[in-house]
């Protein structure tokens, strides 16, 4: 989330027409088109965050700036060239790193929270725990995972929570 992405089209010489057909998760479909015979571009219902990366007559790659969950969906490039028609489809998924919080509950137990990540994060503890994580889904597709450390022995001084996620791993330690 927040980064940019560049999607490429099939590399064909003698392109006569290129069309990006975009069906985002939120909002209606949009198209970006280019006709070589008129050296003309056209856009229909596309937000300002989607545009040609370069000049479409040289390279018809699509750049998506400021990626967000709403821009997830299918992105298809259709190229019409002298040797035929070619398609390439991408299914864009946006990763959202969770916010890691580690605190002590009212009973002195460490609680690790990985908030609003996409997909759901995995929580583990450096020392063995018989904790069962709880997940809470949100309307925007993110998930909060909560894990309470329950030790087998009570002579613990410092515990470390490890959050594993495709957008990056995090860890924090606490003494309760």
TrEMBL record:
Coiled-coil features, chain-numbered ranges: none
Membrane topology per the entry is:
Single-pass membrane protein
The protein's GO terms of the molecular function aspect are: signaling receptor activity
Q: Where in the cell is it found?
A: Membrane
Q: What is its main location?
A: membrane
Q: Which GO terms describe its biological process?
A: regulation of neuroinflammatory response
Which Gene3D superfamilies does the entry link to? Immunoglobulins
Q: Which residues form the Ig-like domain?
A: 60-175
Which residue windows are transmembrane per the record? Answer: none
Q: Which InterPro entries match?
A: CD200R, CD80_C2-set, Ig-like_dom, Ig-like_dom_sf, Ig-like_fold, Ig_V-set
The GO cellular component terms are: external side of plasma membrane
What keywords sit in the KW lines?
A: Disulfide bond, Glycoprotein, Membrane, Receptor, Transmembrane, Transmembrane helix
Task: Tell me the protein family, please.
Answer: Belongs to the CD200R family.
Q: What is this protein called?
A: MOR1A protein
